[in-house]
Amino acid sequence: MLLGLSGQNKDMDVSYEAVNGSGDGDGGVPHGALLARLAEAMWEGDREATAAARAAVVDAAGADVMVDAVAVSANFHMMTRVADGTGTPLDPGTYDMSAPVREACDLNGFVSRRDPQGDRQTAQGASS
Length: 128
Fold this sequence. Notes:
The protein is mostly helical. The protein has helices at 2-9, 32-44, 47-61, 63-86, 92-104.
């Protein structure tokens, strides 16, 4: 979701085609396919694949892009774990606004998507 908002700020036409293996291409993001490959390798914990993906990003986009990509990925991973561990649900606005993105990327089945208070259709009454 933040990718989409960030793309709007930079007048970019981003899509979610590169997320979760839901398509080929860059998703409208420079080096998007390489960045997606890096994120997937990091998530899978495959050291060789992660090293190869980091090297590919450095070769194509430079070390600064690779460092930023790894930092962003790590930060999102951390935020999800903190929210999950504390039982913090999405606020109602984010829950509703993110519904099309969650559906497009097939994210609703992920453990980190589950609502610790019980699956609900809307986030009414949720606290942030």
